[in-house]
Structures are given as C-alpha cells and as structure tokens.
Specification:
mainly beta, 17 strands, globular, six-stranded antiparallel sheet, nine-stranded antiparallel sheet
C-alpha cells in the first residue's frame, strides 16, 4: 500500500521539533533526530542502503541536530528512504547512547514518531552505566507530527508518537543507552530524548501542527511499500 506523509510546521522550528512538548522541572536538555531521510543521509556520506539492500551497515553513528548523544543501527534492516528510516520488511535493532550525561540526571523521556504504534517490536530498554537496566516508569501513545493518507479509503490519519519515561532518582549515572527494535515495514520519522535533573511525570502536550492541503508550507513525502 502507498500513502503520503504530510507535515506542516513553523519554519522557525523546522530543525528543533519533537511531536510532544516535554516539560521537566529543573535543568533539562534534549537530543533530537528530526530529518531521518535520504535527503540527509545518503551515499555521499556513507549511507548506501536501499530498498534492495536494507541491511547495509551505516558509515557511523549519527549525532542529533541538538544534544550530544548518538543514534546507530546495530543490526538488521534500516535504510534512509525519501521520507523516513525504513526497514523494507526486515526487522532492525537500534541504539541511542550518551557518555556526556546531564549532571545529577534524574529522568529520561524517549520519543519515537512512527507510521504506526506497531512499528516498535517491544518497549525500549534503558541501560545505565553499561550494566544496569531500568524499567520505564510510564509510557504513552499520542498523535505524531505527520499525517498519512490511505489511498484505499481516501482518508488521513496521524502518525503515532510513542513515549517512555524513566525515573533515575537516586542513581549515579555516567552513561546511558536506549535500545529498541522495529517490526517489518516500519517507518520512523523522528526521535527525541529529553533528560532532566528532577523527576516528575511528563505531561504530553501535542505540538501545534496546522495541516492544510492548500498551504505552500506543506511537506509532501511518499513512502514506498
């Protein structure tokens, strides 16, 4: 099935957006990957995967457009198509990690904007200091930044924003890693990790996204299945 991905957002925030606004008390910072497509990652910088070769290795871990963590594929499918990180029917495994941790970190919030909630095989795993895994304190699903158009039904529906938060209060954290896997034919559009030095349950507030088929600001992107 083919469908369109449509996104509308203010030009001022085109390189600094996440599907949910995360408000954390105290000092906080964000790691963001919001241009996961072949316009950004292609053969000119070592990302040679394609629909016929989705398991090709990435040339290097990817730094976010903000923050200091890195994002990497560890195995399986995952290449940068015209609109998304797509795995072409082969499940993929991925990692986001940082060794430059916010001082006195007390919480992490991880977001994935995907074509559907089924794109993620299981809840992500957080490991701190290389050995200790921490269970998520809560998770949520909200509408994402994009709309998908179904050619069969002629209707639009939002992408899925999936979010998890971990309570790290009382932990001494020198490094962290979030690992996750994708299911066959998964499309990932953006990722974000927010960290803060005080724990409070984050209250999801969907970003203001104004969608109009007549607006010149719309970004039309087609995914191939």
């Amino acid at each position: 099935m083919k469908f369109l991905i449509i996104s509308a957002f203010a030009i001022a925030t085109i390189n600094a957006r996440a599907a949910l606004t995360i408000n954390l008390p105290g000092t906080s910072e964000q790691e963001l990957w919001d241009n996961l497509n072949s316009s950004t990652y292609n053969s000119t910088n070592g990302f040679t995967g394609s629909y016929g070769n989705p398991t090709a290795d990435w040339s290097a871990a990817i730094a976010g457009s903000t923050g200091n963590a890195t994002f990497d594929k560890t195995s399986g499918g995952g290449y940068f198509s015209g609109s998304s990180l797509y795995n072409a029917g082969i499940p993929g495994s991925f990692s986001i990690s940082s060794t430059s941790v916010l001082p006195a970190i007390a919480t992490l919030v991880f977001q994935i904007d995907a074509a559907s909630a089924a794109a993620i095989g299981a809840d992500p795993v957080l490991t701190i200091n290389g050995t200790t895994t921490v269970a998520a304190a809560f998770s949520a699903e909200n509408d994402g930044d994009f709309l998908t158009y179904n050619y069969t039904t002629g209707t639009f529906s939002p992408t899925a924003n999936l979010a998890w938060q971990w309570d790290l209060s009382g932990e001494t954290v020198t490094s962290w890693e979030i690992t996750f896997s994708t299911t066959p034919h998964a499309s990932i559009y953006e990722l974000a990790v927010d960290s803060g030095d005080s724990f409070a349950q984050a209250v999801p507030e969907p970003s203001a996204v104004i969608v109009s088929t007549l607006s010149a600001a719309l970004l039309l992107r087609r995914r191939r299945n």
